[in-house]
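dude i think i finally got it to work??
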Amino acid sequence: MALMGYDDAEPADTEAPRTTRARTFARSTRRVAGVSARGARKAGEATGRAAGVSARGAKRAGTTTGRAAGYTFRQARRATHAEGAGASGLARLIELHAFNAAGDAAVAISLAGTLFFQVPTGEARGQVALFLAVTMLPFAIVAPLIGPFLDRFSHGRRWAIGATMALRAFLCWVLADAVLNDSVALFPAALGCLVASKAYGVTRASAVPRLLPGRLTLVKANSRISLAGVAGAAISAPLAILASTAGTEWSLRYAFLVFVGGTILAILLPSRVDSSTGEEQVARTPGGGGKTSKRRTHVPVSVVLALRSNAGLRLLSGFLTMFLAFLLRDQPFPGWEDRPALLLGLVIGAAGVGSTIGIALGSMLKSVNPDVTVIVVLLVDAVATVLVAVFYGLVPAVLLGLTAGLAQSLGKLSLDALIQREVPERTRTSVFARSETVLQLFWVIGGFIGIAVPLIPQVGLGVAAGILVGWVVLVIMTRKRV
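look at this
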């Protein structure tokens, strides 16, 4: 029995500790599970709070960005619609010009790596001269052909402007394929873009008087349009560069989209663009003492004088572009020997800044007399060139670039205003086309002179100063005779 009792008791004594341990283990497991559940719940709550914070932060960032974009848009719209420009329809033309400049900037950036703009450091001057001659082709087509053609269709300006946009959109798509496949269509398509761009310029300029509000002068209206172009190009250039990182053809396709938008805006221009109601159809004849004639065929004296003044400004611009490009590459200023391209960019950039300042001044000044302005800016250009020829250096060269850009900008605004004011509607587009041709011709002549003169600063700049001073005397004497 004792043995049996031992045998019966042994399992009971063994089972009890096992049960206790199992219960203890279960309780521990439950506690761990509870802790884990609470930890998971807290982690989930923390994650949810973090996600909520991130969502709110993203929402706030999006709201801030949207407000900034909305504010920028409202300010730009307020600027384009100010002083009656919105009611007259001029604001739409200003916005259209921003699209035009944006598309042109994209095309220029796209073609910067092609044969049209590849000018290696050691390239002969003869090759650069050939490039200058090629730039005259669009103007040779615009003046004798497109100008008179557009004059015949003065009641279809919206469609004429839209056609220049649509044509460039089509040619940009052709250019994209030509660049991708190295096609022979590259040259004619690029030339077509240049011609269409110049045709747009003369057509748009001739339409400005039809949309001019009573509170704006022609100089201020032209300045606002030019400022919109600067803004459009400044915004578009980074986008085109970004698109070109995927290939040159993509920046051209981006330009295609811009010109498609421009085509739509051109069609949506107000009907006043196609109406000549209230326009003056006659103007002063040269030496006519203010008399008018309905069969007037001559360009007014004031326009001729303004064109001659601008010709001198363009001649200096072409000269400085070519002469300094070779001079600063061959004889950079001390300390800039390893950075001639940056040095040239500094001078050219100063000219760009001066041009922008000139446009801004034309927009802000309450009254600008274009007849006087064209003479003053030519005189200032001549004086600046003489001073730089005598005191040649980095600072004087940069100041000359700034002055040349400022003078050219104000001179062109004044010339456009005089053509819009003095030339009858029936021949205005032809006069714009011919004036653009003359100005480009003088730019090319200045470029040829810059290539031909010796690369000696005092000699080259002295030649330019002498020519410009003589041109000032010629313009002033002509003005006194009439």
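The chain is about 80% helix and 0% strand.
im so relieved honestly
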